Amino acid sequence: MMIVDLDYTRRYLSLQINDVICWWWYYIKEISWQLLIALLAYLCVCIFLYALLKRVDHTAWQLPGPPDRLLLVTAHPDDEVMFFGPLVYWLTRSKVTKVYLLCLSMGTCPTDDLSWCPGSVLAGGDKRRIDELWASAKILGIPEANITIIISSELPDDQTVQWPIDEVAESILQYIEIYKINAVVTFDKHGVSRHRNHISLYFAIAALCIEKKVPPYCKLYVLESVNIIRKYIQLLDLPISLLSAPYWYLVTREQKHTIKKAMAAHKSQYVWFRKLYMVFSRYTFINTLQEVSALDLELDLQFDED
Question: Which Pfam families does this chain map to (predicted)?
Fold first, then answer.
């Protein structure tokens, strides 16, 4: 019968564990230096790109044309500045593009009728939110007459509710046809924050595109959604952003003050976590856009079904 020396076994296991710990500690130190060097090199690339892009003309990477009349479709007041600030900043300062804003809700739904009227607010709603939207748009450079707000019980401000696609699509199409819109910009299928109201806007323009209802003179674009890490690293996302999308709009730190001022105009919404968002989010620094085509949509929908 074999007698096991427990003390010897304990010492042996202790030595083995110490060897493993020492080896991993050495490995981690070596890797840490390499990671640190890589991060410093990446940071230098980001700073170099930012400094370079501050001094060059961005026109070649902006929307082609540029479009004479662009319609920005948002789900809520403050979307225009929280997510589309750089795009709006540059377009409103362009001598070529006239920017229109179509906001699909005000956060309250006092009526059952889907009514809309360019340059006005219908069916009640939260007057404070309306005033804040107009104040923000004024800072960004969007004329009050170019702002349309829809208020309907069918379009509640609710993260869990997907809006009726047909009604939203019809409102967008009507606006395109009346104002001869050359380009429409809205959220992509992830809605930046996966807000279902945002995603509804994407499916609305997707339906128009697939059903071939969009006039030939109008192009559709969506704002690129990114993962949670990229969303909040701002400058560090610059190289990836430039490589990931054909069209982008970048603001400098000085120009970003205008966007922050416009967000501050939404006084009822400008709470502490949105203040942090304005500091760290890439969407207050750069917007990357993708063009929407019927073929891409059909392939995308087929892939989702599979």
Answer: PIG-L
CA distance 27 to 73: 52
Euclidean distance between CA atoms 262 and 256, whole angstroms: 10
Q: What percent of the chain has pLDDT over 90?
A: 60
Dump pLDDT digits (tens) for 164-214.
999 999 999 999 999 999 999 999 999 998 899 999 999 999 999 999 999
Residue pointed to by tokens 């005033």? 131
Residue-wise pLDDT for 90-124, tens only, equals: 999 988 899 999 999 986 433 434 344 444 444 34
**Contact criterion met (CB below 8 Å) for 86 and 249:** yes
Q: Is the dihedral of CA 62, 71, 98, 89 positive or negative?
A: negative
Asked if 203 and 274 touch (Cβ cutoff 8 Å), the reply is: no
What homologous superfamily does CATH list for 52-108+123-304? LmbE-like (3.40.50.10320)
Query: What residue ranges do the domains of the chain occupy?
Result: 52-108+123-304
Of the candidates 47, 79, 46, the one whose C-alpha atom is nearest the C-alpha of residue 197 is 79
Interatomic CA distance for residues 186 and 168, integer angstroms: 12
